[in-house]
Every structure is written in C-alpha cells, then in structure tokens.
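Hello K.,

You asked for the raw outputs rather than the summary table, so here they are, unedited. I folded two proteins back to back in the same session to keep the settings identical. This is the first:
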Amino acid sequence: MDRLTQKMNSMQMRKKRVRATINGTKERPRLSVHISLSHVNAQLIDDTTSTTLIYVTSVGRKLTGTMTEKAATIGTELAKKSKTAGINKVVFDRGSKLYHGRVKALADAARAGGLEF
C-alpha cells in the first residue's frame, strides 16, 4: 500500500471513530467542520432526517487573513445564523482533524457567538 492510500485510510478510520460516538438531532444538530488547504466549511446537520440546516463556507468570498482567522470568521457567522434559526446547542464533529489550530479557532468563535457544545 502506498503512502497516500494509507493516509486516506487512516483519515477515514479516524472520521468513523468520531462519528460512531456522536449523532445530531433537530434540537441538537451536529456541527460538522471541514478544513481544506484553502477553504473552511461548517454545517449544522440533522442526522435523523439527513438534512443540512445551516451551511457556511469561505468558498467564493474574499476573506483576508490567515486560515485560522478565516476559520474564526466562519465560526462567528455560523453562530449568528444558528441564533436566528433558534439553535443554541450543537454536537461538535471535528471529522478526521485534531482539535487544535484551525478547528479549535472555529469552535472557540462559535462558542463566543453563543453556541453551546
């Protein structure tokens, strides 16, 4: 198995391990975070009906600053949209990423915006 295939398999296993313990409902949706090399995506998902309730992304926007600052901006915007939708509590899904750096910046900004998790 080459290095890239092994890396992708490890990421999938970490993602499944995290997803096995959490589940989103309409009252407490799952906050799923995806951070690529150049963009940040965050969405609130109701797993009972498999629908996305709120979606915020940095794709197609002129956000300035580092990726950590972009992640914080996306976190505050997600918190504002969820407040208007009446969602206060969420379950955090970090995916295959570790909880530090950009993922932590997004989570801290969402908490500062009023989300509880």
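The second followed immediately with the same parameters:
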Amino acid sequence: MHPNSAFRPRQDDLAELLVREIGFAAIFAATPDGPRVAHAPVVLSDDAATLQFHLARGNALTRHLDGAIVLAVVQGPDAYVSASWYEAADQVPTWNYVAVEMEGSVSKLDDAALIAQLDTLSATHEARVGANPPWTRDKMNPALFSKMTGAITGFELRITAWRPTVKLSQNKSADERERVAAGVEATGHGALAQLMRHLGGDRDRA
C-alpha cells in the first residue's frame, strides 16, 4: 500500500467495486515451507465481509490455509509514467497502478459451499461474456463434475482489513494528470488512462 493518503480512494465502495469487477486475486500466506502465493478467481459476498476462492488440492498453499491469516491482493491496470510527461524539469519517472489488499483469516468450505461458489462464479462470468444459453454445471455428467470438484478445495477469507491503493497521479495538477493520462493511453494502457480521467479528479473536487 502506497503511504500517500492522496492515493486512498475517496469513494467508499470503490475497493469493493474493483474486487467484483476484476474478480481475480493473488493469495499470500506464510507457511512452514516458506512464503507462498496462489492465484484464483474470487467471489466477494454481498456485504463485502468475506472473499471466497478455491485452489487445486495439489497447490503448495492449499494444505496450509485452513485457519491461517492471509493477504489477498486484487490488481487492476498499471503503467509506467515517464517524467517527460510533466511540465516541470525536476521530476522522476513513477508507476501508476490500482491494487486492493484484503487481510483476514481463512476457513475451509464444505462441499455444498464450494459448489455454491462455483455456481456463483460461472453465473457471474457467463453473464458477462453473453453466452446464450449460459454454461451451467447441469450440462455436465454429474459423476465427472463430482470428480473434478474433488480435485479442488474451497476457502473463505473473513476480511478484517481493507487496504486499497488507487495511484492515478492525484498529487499532480489537473493539466499534468491529463498529460500523463494521454501518455499512458498512447503506450497502450487505455484502461488506466480511463480510470485516471474518471477517478483522478477526486482530489480536485475534494
């Protein structure tokens, strides 16, 4: 998390919106085997109190998660910022980015909760891709589905701390921020430029 308070989102639900929109996280934990990280699709509960995910049973992190304190990180768009895009000469390059950290304790899910998580994931993302009809597990052989779910383990992270960072040049003037947005857009980072233009002005409106 960047220490500059200018990069804390002023929109209370922005971190939740980013987690729901991106839907994919890195899960970090300390284990007896050393630090480990896994990568997984996630489901944030309606009240934003828990984050569910699942991992392959053979994942190096899986056997260590039940009861552990972990850090889940959802990362949004990012891009290099050239110092040449600023008007003043005495500037240095930096990096603009969006990241949401969630800390909390993890518990293992039972089979019914795991299947409910998988159903939620597929329904959410099938709706986004516009599949018609959408894929559901009803299209699978039940025995095969059961075999495949037996190869994964579901977890729930009870969130005790949110630490979002939305670093979009909010500490710069509106003119400089637009120059940076144009620069990152020209280098192929249109999503970040759009966020800068949409959210970076929070500082000006505060």
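The helical segments are 14-22, 111-129, 142-149, 174-186, 190-199, 202-205.

Happy to rerun anything if the numbers look odd on your end.

Regards,
P.
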